[in-house]
Amino acid sequence: MEWSEYMLMAARHSRGSASHWFRYLRKDIDKFGTLFFWHDVEKLSKDEALSPFQRVSIRAAFREGSPTRNHIIGLNQRTNGDSIRNLREKYGNSV
Fold first, then answer.
1. Which of 4, 37, 58, 60 could join 68 via S-S bond, C-beta 3.0 to 4.6 A?
2. Which of 28, 30, 24 has its CA nearest to residue 10?
3. Taken in order 75, 11, 58, 54, is the CA torsion positive or negative?
4. Backbone angles phi, psi at 47, to 5 degrees
5. pLDDT, tens digit, for every residue of 1-44?
6. Alpha helices (H) along the chain
7. Predicted pLDDT at 40
């Protein structure tokens, strides 16, 4: 399966769920970061099978230093237990 076919399948499966879509992008950044070129991202971002949100976010996800990319890379990283504990102490157990 080519990268663009995989991404179209991911777009269909994650329709309506930004977090699900970002998790697909996270896997792509890890696995396929060197196997495709920017023109592949541009071509895919113009595909009608992607929602407007998916079109914008896929371009941002593969642009170095973008806030979207930084957010996606930060997904699935271990959280620091102390920071969570500090938030609970500051804001109560509603956090």
1. 60
2. 24
3. negative
4. -70, 135
5. 687 888 889 999 998 888 889 888 888 776 655 566 788 888 88
6. 3-13, 18-31, 38-45, 52-61, 67-74, 81-91
7. 84
